[in-house]
Fold:
Amino acid sequence: MSPVIALEGLAKGYDIAGGARLTAVDDVSLTIAAGETYALVGESGCGKSTLARMAAMLTAPDAGQVSWSGQTVSQQRRSAVRAVRDHTQFVFQDPAAALSPRLTVEEAVSEPLRIRRRTGSRSVADLLDDVGLDRSMGRRYPRELSGGQRQRVVIARALALEPKLLVLDEPVASLDVSVQAQVLNLLADLQAEHGLAYLLIAHDLAVVSSVADRIGVMYLGQIVEEGPAGDVVTTPRHPYTQMLIASVPAFVPGERGERPRVVGDPASPTERRTGCAFATRCAFATQVCLDVAPPRRELGDVAVRCHHAS
Amino acid sequence: MTAALEIDDLWVEAGDPDDPLVLVRGVSLTVAAASVVGLVGESGSGKTVTCMASLGLAGRGVRITGGSVRAQGIELVGADERTLMRVRGGVVGTVFQDPLSSLNPLQRIGDQIAEAVMLHHGGRRRSHHARVVELLAKVGVPAPEQRARAYPHELSGGLRQRVAIAMALANDPALLVADEPTTALDVTVQAQVLDVIRSATRDEARSALIVTHDLGLVAEVADRVAVMYAGQIVEEGPVASVFQDPQHPYTRGLLASRPVLAAGRRRLGAMVGRPPLPGSWPAGCAFAPRCPVATGACGEAPPIRTSDQGWSRCWHPGSGETTATSRAEEGAA
Structure:
């Protein structure tokens, strides 16, 4: 089965003030199949969001290509780009910012169809059903809804154009703990029903481990480790992944304070560097790490960019 | 030994005094000397208001209508501004969620920390330079001598929060009050800031009250935990016993809905509904409409049951399993 989306060698950089160049994404490849959740994790500024924008063809890559259902999409053909944008919908962290305060729920959910002058196969009432909202909510305004309800409206709106891929950018980070689980469960149900592919961007590895099929760990624009979620979480190979996992609160009282120390901040993405981007924070770094950029290596089902991982 | 903080039957309300919006209903909480207490709750539960009102920082229109708050034995409810000024920053150091908003963008961080020392010890800014460098080193700021001359915008989020903690510790307070100190930070940085808080408390026999929605953080640093819901504490006890054997169904639900790091996709134990906001708290047990074990008795205010080393406010403590819920039920949230 061909994947819904395949990214091949994507790269993106920006010229910034002072003549420096910021490398946001550097040679990233990944594929996501229908019904699959691919989670990107990493610290702020690692390039997760730029990568998602390139997948949705909202940002043109400097290099590399994007394929949908096995077909390479040309950046030049506007109709093709537009189709990709329709097939990709976003759900962001803060639903209050994603909804117009002047539109009712019904207007918000039907807006994508109105803009595309299409009639969807599903009515607004169906879409609200899908996300577990009562139809009577259609006449309400966002301010009359709770955070969890607003995020459901955003999800219903995202489904209106019957997308193939949802980009979920920290979809539950702003919600109350007791509501987060509800929204995550809802997303899992919708995925099963509609065969949606999810690109999940999240920093919370505990959340990620409970919903993702595959995990890609990003560091300064590169995926440094990628593989089935279970492998990455239980036997992390890259020192950075190990450090991220060590940072997750143990949640077992008494186990505190005995975890490896996390050191430093990420290096600046504007710095020119040879070698491994993580070497400056890595406890295992040797001379080769400073001199030679580690190539992508396959270790069983997992791919790692590290000279020393085994 | 005097407790670092003793909140006794605190009531807080806002709005029109004739038709007030009750925010906190009779909260009692003790932070013993050299102990760390986590105050946990969701939005609207009153956890932040409890801590802000206790320090006289609740803001306009929010007033304490009953109860008492003592920091190191000093009564703060009804205290004059001079007493409060002496306590805040002196006896109690505070750290907030967003370090950028608690630092002055136009002043070098060293000068800001020196100012915090000056307010309580007098002297001139320059005479406190050594203390400033010492504080920055203590919270793990690399090259403290140089960093003291930096402006907040030149620092990363994690470093800024370290600076905020250094400022809170400037006058060696007996109690540190931190409101969501790691929420705005990256996970790796969260762990580092937690280490700083841990050493500022454990290693120096300092007490802390940490207000948070994050149960993981509580497990990491606190000795005791108090869980707030609808303006009341519904359960309080040692962290280990509350996490392993929660007595209140709300605590149980919170623990079940928090994903843990493990292999394999799985359904999370979602609670029904959402936390009620002030002004719409149900009568009797406020959690009853969301509670899987609620009965007719829950229409009445539940009694306080003490257990081993803690207590809970529930008619059916320690009973029942959280049940799976339908999508429509969850959507009511």
Summary: Residues 321-326 of chain B have pLDDT under 50 and may be disordered.
